[in-house]
From TrEMBL:
GO terms for molecular function: adenylylsulfate kinase activity; ATP binding; sulfate adenylyltransferase (ATP) activity. It catalyses: adenosine 5'-phosphosulfate + ATP = 3'-phosphoadenylyl sulfate + ADP + H(+). It comes from Paraburkholderia sediminicola. The active site is at residue 109. GO terms for cellular component: cytoplasm. Pfam families: APS_kinase. This is Adenylyl-sulfate kinase. It comes from the Bacteria. The keyword Transferase applies. NCBIfam families: apsK, PRK03846.1.
């Protein structure tokens, strides 16, 4: 990656993080959903976004599959490209947090060191690593996109959980077993965390 040019300066606007928190009624954090394909990242991310919107909170889903149509369309699935994908998404999340939005990132992000990099880029105080736990077999039974069948037949290389590793988070802020809870329960779990940590006004409802 290129280094910032030495003559580039940063400009700082007059709208502060505090101003934005008052406007949006929440602390702009990044909820980073990690887990195997089929663990429920997209399902939970978009339901969380829907519920946040219904309460008047501005949030946005950065979904791994969607990102690969544009921002990361030049990247593949080897270790280096996955890391670059995560680096880009983390920078976008950080910018969106800066703008005041709650970001919900839904990426397999299988390697611990890549998630640690994302945490550093976003800012450790704003990063909520959320591990959606579900075994390979449970995900393969769901197989919403038919990818496990293809991966097991050898038609997809470097498929996480089948032919590429997934490193289980050692110390995530949240762990949700999606084989044991419904998507609605998983979203409720995340809401409880946000409320317990005072990251959102509980009474925020836009008419
Ligand atoms: P990912 O984004 O992690 O690849 P998806 O959200 O695309 O996963 O797919 C998960 C699939 O599993 C969906 O079809 C969803 O309806 C289904 N599913 C079944 N039970 C659950 C659950 N408890 N939580 C989340 N998804 C579930």
């Amino acid at each position: 990656m290129g280094q910032p040019l030495p003559f580039l300066q940063r400009f700082h606007g007059e709208v502060t993080a505090c101003d934005r928190m008052q406007m949006f009624h929440h602390k702009p954090v990044t909820i980073w959903l990690t887990g195997l394909s089929g663990a429920g990242k997209s399902t939970i991310a978009f339901e969380l976004e829907r519920q946040l919107a219904s309460l008047g909170h501005a949030s946005y889903v950065l979904d791994g599959d969607n990102i690969r149509h544009g921002l990361a369309s030049d990247l593949g699935f080897d270790k280096k490209d996955r890391r670059e994908n995560i680096r880009r998404v983390a920078h976008v999340a950080q910018l969106m947090n800066d703008a005041g939005l709650i970001v919900i990132a839904a990426l397999i992000s299988p390697m611990r060191e890549d998630r640690a990099m994302a945490r550093e880029i976003v800012g450790p105080g704003n990063f909520i690593e959320t591990y959606l736990a579900a075994s390979v077999d449970a995900c393969a039974r769901r197989d919403p996109k038919g990818l496990y069948a293809k991966a097991r037949a050898g038609e997809i290389a470097s498929f996480t959980g089948v032919s590429a590793p997934y490193e289980i988070p050692s110390d995530p802020e949240l762990k949700i077993d999606t084989a044991m809870s419904t998507p609605a329960e998983s979203v409720a779990h995340i809401f409880s965390y946000l409320r317990d940590k005072c990251l959102m006004d509980t009474d925020c409802t836009v008419p």
